Predict the 3D structure of the following.
Amino acid sequence: MDQADAAVVTAEEIGRCREQLLRYARSRLRNPVHAEDAVQEALLAALAAGGSFHGRAALGTWLTGILKHKIVDCVRRTVRDQYEPLFEDTVACTARNPEQSLAERQALGEMDRCLAALPPRAGEVFLMRDVLGMSTEEACRALSISANYCAVLLHRARRRLRAGLAEATA
């Protein structure tokens, strides 16, 4: 389909779907501010890409598809933002002497390197489940994956982390 076949979508039509999108985002994200941000990003993206709407699906369906990607981006940002300070605080609270502090920092550095080496989706599942303590259902909903796939990714991530840490200490 070329640009001439694209349906013309106005900002007003897109704006009419805002409440529906907000309800959807709030059901997926626990933070209402993050839900609002995700909807705003989705609406801006829809306005920027309005020419790519071809009318093969309902406008709300098209916008929800865009919103799903914005929600995943939000979850990734949240995981990344929460992940960093978690380990820094742990080191600061548990350090008893300089040698122990150095050893803990080195161990956490190895853990960071091993986490960075994981495939992105496996790393996200590991951080959501084992670091942030999210339930399997919450992680699956945030990443739009099945519980079985989540379990497989978590198993693979843990196995690779164990292997990487064992290799680093050997």
About this structure: Residues 95-169 form a domain with the Arc Repressor Mutant, subunit A fold (CATH 1.10.10.10).
